[in-house]
Amino acid sequence: MLWKVLLLLGLSSAWAQKLCSPGASDGYKVRLSINSALGDQAYVWNENEMFLFRATLAFAMRTYSDGQEYDVANVVVCDETPRVSFWFVVTSPLDASLLVDKRRVEEAVRKSRSRINSAFLLTDDTLEFIGIPPTLEAPVAPDTPPWLIAFGVVMGGVGAGIVVLLVSSVVQKIRKKRDGEEETGGKTENEAASDAIYNMSFSDDEPVTQM
Amino acid sequence: MKLVFPNPGLDNRILSHEDLDRMEKEEGDRPKWDNKTQYMLTCVGFCIGIGNVWRFPYLCQTHGGGAFLIPYLILLVLEGMPLLLLEFAIGQRLRKGSVGVWRAINPYLTGVGIASMLVSLLVGLYYNTLIAWILWYLFNSFQDPLPWTQCPLNDNGTGFVPECQRSSTVDYYFYRVTLNSSTSIADSGGIHWPIVLCLLAAWTVMCVCYIRGIGTSGKAVYVTAILPYIVLAIFLIRGLTLKGSLSGIKFLFTPDVNELINPKTWLDAGAQVFYAFSLAWGGLISFSSYNPVHNNCVQDAVILTAITGFTSIYAATVTYTIIGFRATEKYDTCISDNILTLLNAFDLPEDNITTSNYETALNHLNSSYPDTVLGLDIKTCDMQTLLSEGVEGTGLAFIVFTEAITKMPGSPFWSVLFFVMLLCLGISTLFGNIEGVVVPLKDLNLLPKKWPQEAVTGVTCAVAFIICLLFAQHSGLYWVTLFDNFAGSVPLLTIGLFEMIAVVYIYGIDRFNEDLEYMVGHKPGIFWQVTWRFISPLIVLVILVFYMVTQTQEELTYLVWDPNSEQFPSLALVPYPSWINAVVFLLAGVPSLAVPVYALCRLVFVRNPLSSSMQQMESCCASSFPEQPHEKMVHIHSGEEAAGEKKTLLF
């Protein structure tokens, strides 16, 4: 009796191994870069971590696939390397010899990607599913572009500056005219006298040049 | 050497020394500097522009590093300083803007002033477009993360837009988001409205700073001339604390003495000195004409030369600390990417290959599995290539520097600081530029005399803004490059040459020496005599001839941003369309030819007898020869009075 049970177990694991192989059509390769992600606080990859991975994937299949009760045993792993990369396939809970379709696995992984990442303290870059590109975060885009605000501030300041300068020159001119009118009485005689002595054609504003 | 062309009536056109002394005591209505500091800061700001940050370091590094300083400093002293003193002295003596000065020396030379004005206008147009781009980047720096760190996503959200993916985020941001470049200068593609808004901001800022002439711009230079030095110091300290900065400085200053034999090194040094001093724009003549008559302009010229030389080297050092940092970052990233590729391909544990044993590991793997390694497409990471890529012009400021800033902690702050510095450098140069446009416009009576300074400035800025919309098109980048290459090169050299000939041989070097003795107290020494008469004109002539020879030999080509080209993401080199030759003639030929054409026009239409030529004059050259009626009368009188003098003039 015992040898029959052992035989069955051996056969089933061998069967499972045959389902999972590198390059399997319904399988995916996973690659982890724990050292580059965590540096000093990196954990060692061992059997327990692998168990966690299989459990997380089973969770993903349960929640985001057809609702069947996937178990840890349904996630079969093979070809582990020291890089920390391996292949996995997912078998159906109803029939252990059937593999779940690639697209259903992909969908489940995509939807639960952030949960899987956080279970291992990794990111999209450091926990890679080769063949499943991560859905990228949209770039941060605030409602009002900040540059319009800066532009508005600058234009407002400059506009105010122009108005202030124009008003002050107009005020200055009015004031000068008022002061000038008070003195015009005595001035004209002096101007006529100085014309006779000094040649006024050398004043700077005159474009007239004499040969 | 007494070679002076006959120039009758010169004394009647200019103020005598006694008149100048009298005018010093009177309160004229010509603008004046508040103090010497304002004048010096304005000149420093005018000379130190964006070119010191993004042109000089590139020249320095490509022409032998530390060895380039030798031709640069030699030509600074032999070519730049004499011309500088010439412009300062002639402006201070004749007390007029550029058109007025040349017209006073000889009315046939008014063309020199007109050429200066045209060049200032054309250069000012594209220079302010650069300011508009800098403003765009400045406005966009007030956010975290900076917008040029991210690519937009493609439609299904799994990757980036291919144009951004294949080039880089900073390239994409500059060529697509900021400029929305088309693929050719002929393809205008419509107006890109963010650039229009930035152009509006740029011209309004210029208008408000120059609205009362040097009265307002003189106050603004306290900020725009001093702030860049402070920011450069901050960047120097920050740069030196970054990893890899010293490799940048070493790269910059490593002397390669063989470059000194290459004539191109000397030509580039000479051209750079010429443009660095903003000579022949007319702005310096105007600025020094507002000085008191006994201002020591010799000392000013020497001080300004020293400041310009020092600032060029200072800015180059700062620039290359940042470039060294960026190159080191890219090199490290390149090595890490290669390591990751190797680890992934051979499924090795992560710690197997590190940066220290990368070389040995690569060689070992290459020897054991050469086919696999070949198929991996490992990139070669070369520090020298990284240090020398894209380090000139707009590429330096908007691509290399912005990328380096994104890698510094606290990037928005550094970005704001950097673009404020570029803005100040550009605006202070534009003050001189706008002076070189507005004052000749007034001298030539192209604008009504009763208009106040504010209206003149406003109208000039408004018209310039409308013309600048040419650069707001999708092909605007290519137009700016065209203007930069042709409007700001040959015409300036030609005008500089004419200026020296005019002062030394038409105004008379003896008279000029006496003027300097009157103004400063002593005659200029043998150094100035030799450089003014022979050395500086010779240098400028040689540069001009070589430049024209090389330009006419080459086919006119330009670089375009074309996502469909094979060299993408590098810029593709394409030939200009044939109608560009007409535009090049307009940009380079018209200002250069303004001098002989004006003289010819005047010779033909003014020297004819009264009756028939009166109508011709009024129709042809009415607006630019306002003095014609008066001159006609005086000419007849002086012809009778000065019977002993030679009547015919060459110019």
TrEMBL record, chain B:
Localization terms from the record: Membrane
Keyword Transmembrane: yes
Lineage top rank: taxon: Eukaryota
Positions of transmembrane segments: 39-57, 69-90, 111-139, 191-211, 220-240, 273-290, 302-323, 413-434, 455-480, 486-509, 530-549, 579-605
Binding site for Na(+): G45, N52, L425
Keywords: Membrane, Metal-binding, Sodium, Symport, Transmembrane, Transmembrane helix, Transport
Record keyword Membrane present: yes
Pfam family, one: SNF
GO-annotated biological processes: sodium ion transmembrane transport
GO cellular component: brush border membrane
Coiled-coil region: none
Gene Ontology MF terms: metal ion binding; neutral L-amino acid transmembrane transporter activity; symporter activity
Family to which this protein belongs: Belongs to the sodium:neurotransmitter symporter (SNF) (TC 2.A.22) family.
Protein name: Transporter
